[in-house]
Specification:
Elements: H1 8-14, H2 19-24, H3 33-37, H4 40-47, H5 51-63
Length: about 60
């Protein structure tokens, strides 16, 4: 299960299918420096993204 405290790159490395969800939410910077150090919560706040909706979509993606 993906949580808000997990690192963005940690999530994508562990669950590559989630890259599409990040792109859907406008987070195209998966290779940028910030993504290497930010948690999902920090990234969502920085991009003005609804964290709970994104978490749901990320966890739905890994269940498929």
């Amino acid at each position: 299960m993906i949580t808000k405290d997990m690192g963005i790159i940690e999530i994508v490395n562990k669950y590559p299918v989630t890259a599409d969800v990040f792109f859907k939410y406008g987070m195209h910077c998966l290779g940028c420096m910030a993504a290497r150090f930010e948690t999902l919560e920090q990234g969502a706040l920085a991009h003005g993204i609804d964290l709970e909706a994104m978490l749901k979509d990320l966890n739905d993606a890994i269940k498929k």
